[in-house]
UniProtKB/TrEMBL annotation:
The keyword Ribonucleoprotein does not apply. PANTHER family: THIAMINE PYROPHOSPHOKINASE. Residues 149-214 form the Thiamin pyrophosphokinase thiamin-binding domain. SMART domains: TPK_B1_binding. Its EC number is 2.7.6.2. It comes from Paenibacillus profundus. One of its GO terms (molecular function) is thiamine diphosphokinase activity. This is Thiamine diphosphokinase. SUPFAM superfamilies: Thiamin pyrophosphokinase, catalytic domain, Thiamin pyrophosphokinase, substrate-binding domain. Keywords: ATP-binding, Kinase, Nucleotide-binding, Transferase.
Length: 220
């Protein structure tokens, strides 16, 4: 698989996958310097007159004429056999971006009706964190991140902020600037203690001593 590494290496890569995508997700493009369309996510971009820097996937979710259009309209196009591949289209795109070690990867269109795909994509946040790359998932109702140390957030356009372990136990959780603060708390998988907290200050801080903690800003 020949992938042309962009020069200079991008600092912010946005991946558009084939899940739920609203037009509001296009506003994120102004902060990106490299855009990847994964399978039907590439079609979404092209339909909105955005040329992907890279289109990647098996393209089994588009029609043949759409696949040809994607290939013609993308700066670089790489397709995979739908059977002979070990990763989802989203993870293929993610792995390519992660090799470049950008400062940030944003994942759009990675949530939706397929809960199995949604959970697998959330797990990619941990993979990015272990590689030292900031990563987030964004859709019209959620902003999802992960931390295993400290995270500072400004007030988001989402009224709720929830914390869920992505490891069996997360210890030393301290929250500052929240309606319901915590000091040196522990969360285990299966507990709902961290659900539906709220911002009190314009800036909040989450500190973790050990473990992986999902941070989810949400609205109905």
């Amino acid at each position: 698989m020949l992938i042309h590494t962009p020069e200079p290496r991008p600092s912010h890569v946005i991946i558009y996958a084939g899940g739920q995508l609203g037009d509001s997700m296009l506003t994120l493009l102004k902060t990106a310097d490299y855009v990847i369309g994964a399978d039907r996510g590439a079609l979404f971009l092209i339909q909105h007159h955005i040329q992907p820097d890279l289109a990647v996937g098996d393209f089994d979710s588009v029609q043949e004429n759409e696949r040809i259009w994607i290939r013609e309209q993308s700066r670089q196009y790489i397709d995979f056999d739908a059977v002979d591949k070990d990763y989802t289209d989203t993870e293929l795109a993610f792995n390519i971006a992660l090799e470049w070690l950008p400062e940030q990867i944003t994942l759009c269109g990675v949530t939706g009706t397929r809960l199995d795909h949604t959970l697998a994509n959330i797990h990619l946040l941990r993979k990015a964190l272990d590689a030292g790359v900031a990563c987030r998932i964004v859709d019209d109702h959620n902003l999802i991140m992960i931390t295993n140390s400290a995270l500072t957030l400004t007030r988001q356009p989402f009224p709720y902020i929830s914390l869920l372990p992505l490891s069996s136990v997360v210890t030393g959780i301290t929250l500052e600037g929240f309606a319901y603060p915590l000091t040196n708390a522990t969360l285990q998988i299966g507990q709902s203690l961290g659900i539906s907290n709220e911002f009190v200050n314009e800036e909040v801080t989450i500190t973790v001593t050990d473990g992986y903690l999902l941070v989810m800003c949400s609205r109905d």
